[in-house]
Amino acid sequence: MIHAVSDFRATFAQRRPRVAKAACAALAFLLWHPLTAQAWPWEWDETKPALRVTVGVDVFRVPGTAVASARYGGSWNAKISTWLHDAGVDPHAPKLLVGGGYVLTKWNWRLGAGLVWINDTNNNVNGTHWNFDGSIAYDLTDRVFVEYQHYSHGAILGISSNTSNGGWNLLSLGVIF
Questions:
Q1: Distance of alpha carbon 78 from alpha carbon 101, whole angstroms
Q2: How far from the centroid of its chain's Cα atoms is residue 71's Cα?
Q3: d(Cα 130, Cα 151) in Å, to the nearest integer?
Q4: Which CATH architecture has domain 44-176?
């Protein structure tokens, strides 16, 4: 059994660069395709420009750590966040996150992908300043929504595998202005 796990790890380590390239290619396609003249066949991209403000808590690595975020824009957007409460980040939680990304909207659902810069690294959650941003949100009403956000640097893809990459996993409640 131990030998099989060791073989799997070795095989996965050899495939990491291919997995990373495939993931980057898929993300590049998702970001590039909406810029072309041809629309998506299923008519996504119903994202209206707005200011979306959320307050969320980490639900996995450091439960109870609270973060406030604001995102402005339509499909392309800019994001800024700050940590409100540190519930055990070693040595401490960051203070600032800035970034941008792209959001696809259909009905009440929003899927987002982007890149963020976090001002401080730590030992148990984010080991690098630059991180990927992934999110999924659901509009409860015209003005209120719930959202799950994940920030991590992609060690599973073979990027900076020697630094901590627990990632932030935030469950948030938000308001649209």
A1: 7
A2: 13
A3: 9
A4: Beta Barrel (2.40)
Task: Tell me whether strands 97-106 and 66-73 are parallel, antiparallel or unpaired.
Answer: unpaired
**How far lies 19's CA from each of 5, 87, 127, 157, 174, in Å?**
19, 34, 21, 6, 34
CB-CB contact of 172 with 54 (8 Å): yes
d(CA 75, CA 132): 17
Q: Which residue do the tokens 């995102």 mark?
A: 71
Task: Walk along the chain (177 residues) and give the pLDDT tens digit of each residue.
Answer: 555 545 544 554 455 556 566 666 666 666 655 555 455 455 666 789 999 999 999 998 899 999 999 999 999 999 999 999 999 888 889 999 999 999 999 889 999 999 999 999 888 888 889 999 999 999 999 999 999 999 988 766 666 666 777 789 999 999 999
Cα dist from 171 to 22, 32, 49, 109, whole Å = 28, 28, 22, 15
DSSP state of 165: -
Q: What is the DSSP string of 93-150?
A: --S-EEEEEEEEEETTEEEEEEEEEES---SSS--SSEEEEEEEEEESSSSEEEEEEE
Question: What's the full length of the chain, in residues?
Answer: 177
Report the C-alpha gap between 117 and 108 in whole angstroms. Answer: 28
